[in-house]
Amino acid sequence: MLVNATRGFLWSDMETRALLNIWGEHDVQTALDGNFRNSHVYRDVANRLCELGFDRTPDQCRIRVKSLKRQYFQAKEGSRKNGQYHKMCKFYDEMERILSNRSLLERQDIDSVAVGGDETMDEDAESTELLQEAHMDGSGECSFMEHPVKTEYPPCPIPVTVGGMSSFPTKQISLTKTNPPASSSSRPRRSKKRFANMSLEKLMEKFLEQSMEAEDNFYRLEQQRLQAEDKRREEEHSRELQMLQMLGQIFNGIRTPSTAPQATPQPSCIPQTNPAVPLTRPTFGNRNHPPALTEFVSRSQPAGPVIERSFSLGTAAVDNVIPLVRNTIPPLTSKKHKGQDGRIGIIGGCQEYTGAPFFAAISALKVGADLSHVFCTKDAAPVIKSYSPELIVHPVLDSPNAVEEMEKWLPRLHSLVVGPGLGREEMLLKNAKEIIERSKLRGIPIIIDADGLWLVAKEPSVIQGYQRGILTPNFMEFTRLYEAMHHEPLDSTDHKRSAQQLSIAMGHLTLVLKGEEDIITDGKNMLSCSQEGSGRRCGGQGDLLSGSLGVFAHWAFSSPPDAIKGMNPSLVAAFGATSLTRQCNRQAFHKHSRSTSTSDMIQEISSAFKKLFES
Ligand SMILES: NC(=O)C1=CN([C@@H]2O[C@H](COP(=O)(O)OP(=O)(O)OC[C@H]3O[C@@H](n4cnc5c(N)ncnc54)[C@H](OP(=O)(O)O)[C@@H]3O)[C@@H](O)[C@H]2O)[C@@H](O)CC1
Ligand SMILES: Nc1ncnc2c1ncn2[C@@H]1O[C@H](COP(=O)(O)OP(=O)(O)OP(=O)(O)O)[C@@H](O)[C@H]1O
Binding positions for ATP (predicted)? Predict the structure, then answer.
């Protein structure tokens, strides 16, 4: 889902930051280096931006980057003179970070690279041109007098749809007229005279001030337009929900007794040593499916049109899912280096809970990640570290600059698991929220579990609509989320329907409702994993699931779409992780029966993985 439709030349700050994050990636910069033609690189940039929900063409990305570089180089040049101009480039710090290495190279290349106005010129040539434009020569003549600086605004008024906002300040319109680079012969002489007595710095300062003012106006208007759009979308969304609920009620009303859900829980498939003391947790609601290994649910019974449509999209054969998971698993070859098969981050671990982040992190390693990082509080770190020398433990979650400390690692992480053992302290939840926001900008798959779901119940917008987000609630957490989103008690007779409704309300986020059967849905398709486990419900099984899901999610999102037959990568990953968790539970139970603990299950990851995905 696109969070942001194309808006021509107007770029919001969020969109620009996302673009800069992608453009600043090492692989993008390397691809741009020394490539005369860069259209394929910008195609890739536009694709990645699209994955974050921003719809931009490769050309728009390239022009935006070019414009940002121009602003940066001008500000940098100005800054060299009086230390003030850098404040006038909104994204100065970001550009500085990205270009600090490149600019040296580019400066050396100035003489060797051809300068031209061609928009398809290669990256180095663009930078050279930008540097030259920003450069003021020794005679005191500013080069931008010769080549008036192009702003990112178009040469015509901007169409704004929100009422009362169609006219722009005259200053802004006059600025747009400086857009086309005029040749020195066609430049009006008058303007040169008018500026002749002004000092160079004053002139530049004036120009930049006007640019900033114009830019601010655009952003203000754009923000108003977006707010209006958001409001409209929210209204539409709540109308849809109302419809869905009404249809659900109608559907419940017309269901015949033979198709009504049966509330009687099915017994566990594993024989229990003492039937008088059942080991199974009481189940909630309908549990009436064949004892198949897996089930790809496609509803054919009468349902309201909305539900019917949603389910009709998801029809795949049961046996197709495990092979798809297999297709995502990277081969073990001697050609790879450490880290390539997965660097997973776990956000969680506080004074009370040190086991949960450990279980999640070590499970990620055992499934096949190369590196597993835990970001926890200061007092939890030595404890977690003492469990295993294999984990990289960062005691930063409660530090004053926690977000910056964690953000430093984001470019290196392939996926993030937020919540195991996080606790519910306000400050920790705030830091977790901020790091989720920043990870979203980078397109990192984010799995939210345990206390992370507490945060989502309080502030759903933190993850709502993010297509690489996966929620893994147990029944309690699910109820909390459902009621927060729907403002009414959960009807626990039909888990699948409720899970679908919640996924839709969360913007088609993938949801794994854990329980006697694990229900996986993105609101359109539904998978159910009822692989035989056991009746043993020791704490920490959910952590094993979320940690391994971090790895499967990274693999699934890095696989080409045809490897997973076009299926949503989150669904494939979730199916892999739930099958594995249940298989571990089953194997551990065979060895340890009632004493089975999560550590015993973790011991089984290797053979369970082999059995499910490599045999
Ligand atoms: N070794 C460690 O360090 C571990 C640490 N952990 C960490 O602990 C933190 C808190 O997590 P949490 O799940 O205990 O908290 P919360 O959501 O308040 O639920 C508790 C309440 O919900 C209920 N309940 C639970 N499941 C249910 C179900 N399926 N169906 C129905 N009811 C269910 C249950 O009700 P009861 O049966 O007790 O009446 C109970 O009252 C979190 O950070 C987590 O990661 C764990 O990972 C374990 C290993
Ligand atoms: N009633 C059940 N029958 C069989 N398996 C179950 C049942 N409930 C949970 N499971 C298995 O345990 C896994 C974890 O679910 P659980 O409800 O224990 O999560 P959790 O409460 O979040 O765990 P944690 O203790 O780590 O917080 C599920 O994915 C499923 O495989």
Answer: 514-518, 533-542
CA 129, distance to chain mean position in Å, is 35
> How do residues 262-277 score in pLDDT, each as one tens digit?
332 232 222 233 333 3
Distance of CA 266 to the CA centre of its chain: 38
Calculate how far, in angstroms, residue 549's C-alpha sits from the geometric centre of ligand 1.
Answer: 19
pLDDT at 85: 59
Does a structural domain hold residue 224? no
With a cut of 70, say whether residue 256 has pLDDT above it: no
pLDDT-wise least confident of 43-57, 222-236, 495-509: 222-236
In a domain, 152, yes or no: no
Q: How many domains does the chain have?
A: 2
Q: Which residues line ligand 1 (CB under 6 A)?
A: 281, 353, 355-356, 420-422, 450-451, 474-477, 539-540, 542-543
Please state, in angstroms and rounded to a whole number, the distance separating the CA atoms of residues 382 and 396. 12
Give a yes or no: residue 253 inside a domain: no
Which pTM was predicted?
0.60
116-154 pLDDT, tens digit per residue, is 333 334 444 444 444 444 443 333 333 333 333 333 333
**Residue 110 resides in a domain:** no
Residue 150: partners with Cβ closer than 8 Å, 6 or more residues away: 67, 70, 178, 179, 180, 181
What is the residue range of 93's domain?
13-100
Residue located nearest, by CA, to atom 29 of ligand 2: 514
On the question of pLDDT at 168 being above 90, the answer is: no
CB half-sphere exposure, 461, CA atoms < 13 A = 3
